[in-house]
Amino acid sequence: MRQTRTAVATPMQSSGGGRGIKDLRKEMPTFTPKNAPPFDPRIWRLRVGGLVKEHLSFSIKQIMKMEKAKLECDFECVEGWTVPRNMWEGVRLRTILEAAGSLPEAGFVMVIAGSFSTCIPLEKALKDENILAYSLNGSDLAFEHGAPLRLIFPQQDCFDSVKWVNNLELLPEYRAGTGKTIALKRIGR
Ligand SMILES: Nc1nc2c(c(=O)[nH]1)N[C@H]1C(S)=C(S)[C@@H](COP(=O)(O)O)O[C@H]1N2
Ligand SMILES: [Mo]
Asked: Which of 41, 54, 170, 184 could form a disulfide with 106 if both were Cys (CB 3.0 to 4.6 A apart)?
């Protein structure tokens, strides 16, 4: 059974005065945009294309058999909340990208989940800490947190940690993704 995670806001004393409250949460809050792509494990694939030596497509079973990686990190959203110490488990983004092999002209990777996307320099994408996660804090990742597979890209903005990733596209140049605009619009910015 999947756990339903609810947001628990725990007001904390801030040392710096000002507004005086830091929005520290115990669990990742849940919000599922209406356009979240549906997940059917029988037909779901992660596709890797664009400037790669080999176009690849993985089932979630295949991904779960690949070398596992764990990452403990805080998750901070531009909205102002933080969830400390999440334990993510999955496969390194690097493992998937190296399986396809990037062509020398590739400079960026577009991480795509349906109409939500973010464009990352390949050099940053290949760092060991970036995980395509299928597990959070010891449980299967819940759909609202991006199952079957979500990126955790700890050195970037919250909207770069794309949920429901189903496509990686290697590009020669930077092309703006839609994620930042979608995420900022949601919080009225
Ligand atoms: N596909 C997709 N991924 C997404 C988003 C989204 O709207 N769609 N929102 C981003 C933002 S702004 C945040 S803060 C986190 C929230 O993750 P959570 O829903 O697991 O708490 O997901 C990120 N990844
Ligand atoms: Mo966010």
From this structure: 170
Contact (CB, 8 A) for 109 and 171: yes
Report the predicted TM-score, pTM, of the whole model to 2 decimal places: 0.88
Q: Is 133 exposed, middle or buried (0-12, 13-18, 19+ CB in 10 A)?
A: buried
Mutation probe of ligand 1 site: the residue of 152, 156, 158 with most atoms within 8 A of C-beta: 158
Structure letter (DSSP) for residue 172: S
Distance from the alpha carbon of residue 36 to the mean position of ligand 1, in angstroms: 10
Task: Note whether 108 and 117 are within 8 A (CB).
Answer: no
Looking up tokens 């909340």 gives: 81
Which is it for strands 21-25 and 81-92: parallel, antiparallel or unpaired? parallel
pLDDT in tens, 118-174: 999 999 999 999 999 999 999 999 999 999 999 999 999 999 999 999 999 999 999
Nearest to 149 by CA among 80, 186, 96: 96
The neighbouring-strand residues paired with 139 are: 136
User: Does the CB atom of residue 28 touch ligand 1 within 6 A?
Assistant: yes
Q: Are 92 and 132 in contact (CB under 8 A)?
A: yes
